[in-house]
Amino acid sequence: MAGFAIAGLIAGGLIVTACAGTPPASGDQASVQAKVTPKCLDARNIGRKHVVDDHTLLVYDTWGNPYKMDIGGPCKSMTDFSQIGFEFNGTNQICQAHDAMILRSENGERPVKCLINSVEPITREAATLLDKDN
Question: What is the strand order of the sheet 83-88 is part of?
């Protein structure tokens, strides 16, 4: 009886090992990437920022996940040399447009506030197309 139990455990272990070692199908690869990128940008983990054009800002977290922001107001004239920060409304998460405002400063001048019209997590591939410097 003990022999059957041991044989069953070994067979079960082989099945679990075989399933765990199976790579995702090529169609599942995109869903794996989508699950990894968080919906919200955590301000405690903001990394590099890149100005794409006069209304688009890419913000990366420290793990390289990109977020695309549509910006307005005086921030439309910012460049990659601008000092860019955030002022938060309540939490340190940017999930929606009005969770934070952008603070932009040039050459140590007093910062101006700008609206974030929208924020969305995007794939690294989409960010590569927008961020030619990366």
Answer: 83-88, 100-105, 112-114
Contact 88, 109 (CB under 8 A): no
Closest CA to 107 of 87, 78, 133: 78
Rounded Cα gap, residues 112 and 85, in angstroms: 10
Report the 10 Å Cβ neighbour count for 102. 25
The string of pLDDT tens digits covering residues 3-60 is 444 444 344 443 333 334 444 444 555 444 444 678 999 989 999 999 999 899 999 9
Query: Do 9 and 26 contact (CB within 8 A), yes or no?
Result: no
Spatial CA neighbour of 67 closest among 90, 83, 43:
43
This prediction has a pTM of 0.70
In angstroms and rounded to an integer, the radius of gyration of the C-alpha atoms of the chain is 22
- Ramachandran region, residue 22 (left: φ > 0; alpha: ψ -120 to 50; beta: rest): beta
